[in-house]
Amino acid sequence: MQESLRIFSGLWYWPIVLMVLVSAINLIGIGEDNQKALRCALFTTVLLIGTVFLSTVLQHLFRSRKAETIKHSSAYKERFLSLLHALLRIVIAIAFIDILGRIWGVSLLDFAQSSTVGRAISNALSSIGLIFLVTWLLWVVLDTAIQEALKPPVSKRGARQPSTRVKTILPLLRNAIKIILVVICAITTMANLGINVAPLLAGAGVVGLAIGFGSQQLVQDVITGLFIIIEDTLSIGDWVVLDSGHAGTVEGLTIRTLRLRDGKGFVHSVPFGQIKAVTNQSRQFAFAFFSVQFTYDTDVEKAIELIRETGDSIREDPFLKYNLQGPLDVFGVDKMDLNGVVLTAQFRTVSGGQYAVSRAFNQRLKKLVDNSPSVHFAQTYPQQVLLPQRQGELVQETPPESSPVVLPQPSRT
């Protein structure tokens, strides 16, 4: 009842406006049959109020139904309810126009059936309406399917999350489907209006050929990007390093550019044609590699024991253990140089988890070594060797051979 009163509260002035308009026409004397004009105006008022009331009631019903559908039903039902609501409003509008014409002595339906021009116009409009309906229906189905594939599961525990490849390809596929449907709908609509589309298609082909020859870099970007996406070289959310020096997390892909956000928060847009090599650091697993240098007087067995103890504490950590994919592999003595003995080890981790594991490992190993009297880290600061003075020679300061910089070694299987 309250909803009906609210609807009528927005329509009360319409009959007054129409009555004033008819009275003005009668005073001016434009209409020949004042009673007929008054009657038509009265019917028009009733029709207008009824149409608006029906449309508002339908909108209220579909709105409440849509709210229930969102909670208890699928996205397909929600989209189809919206489509049905739009179709019903179109039908109401067409019926209103036809009945309004009949009230004032003009019937659109009779015009469409009785004359050749009317039949041609009605056939063209019917075909165009059918084309729009089919295109709209296809878009609703395909767009809903893509959105459902991209949507993470909410209520189902343990349900499979959409993969990064799906998140990468489906938005591009959605845009491609939209463009294809719009182009096909436009071509078929022009054909139903009697426009010869063959010259337009030929002209579009020539223009496309000219663009292809004139914009070879653009074509190269598009084709390279297509193969990168198909081969799953990178996906949204991956941390990649490009041969051009750019590095960061993949935030988005278009048909010709790659968008990266680096560690400082800056966004880089790189055309696919400029990408020659990609280093993807976010695939399946990674290695947290440790290269630790100790002095020559260090007890190597004790040092290895401390490294294993550090690895065990990492595996027992409630936050870090989920980053691990296996036990600590201790390789032992990797090499010896002027500064000391180098021991190496590594953890196999999930992609991106190697950084947290490496930081925690270094911190805990440092504490253990500081409390161990027989294990000492090597110091790699510059040293000088003083040779004793000989007769007839000056004292010389002979620097030792430059100690090599210890770089992280490649992962070992």
Automatic annotation (TrEMBL):
The keyword Methyltransferase does not apply. Gene3D superfamilies: 1.10.287.1260, 2.30.30.60, 3.30.70.100. Pfam families: MS_channel_1st (PF21088), MS_channel_2nd (PF00924), MS_channel_3rd (PF21082). Residues 290-370 form the Mechanosensitive ion channel MscS C-terminal domain. Keywords: Cell membrane, Membrane, Transmembrane, Transmembrane helix. Residues 175-216 form the Mechanosensitive ion channel transmembrane helices 2/3 domain. GO terms for molecular function: mechanosensitive monoatomic ion channel activity. One of its GO terms (cellular component) is plasma membrane. Its main location: membrane. Residues 218-283 form the Mechanosensitive ion channel MscS domain. It is found in: Cell membrane. It is a multi-pass membrane protein. The keyword Transmembrane helix applies. It comes from the Bacteria. Residues 391-413 are annotated as: Disordered. The chain crosses the membrane at residues 12-30, 42-62, 83-104, 124-142, 172-191. Belongs to the MscS (TC 1.A.23) family. This is Mechanosensitive ion channel protein.
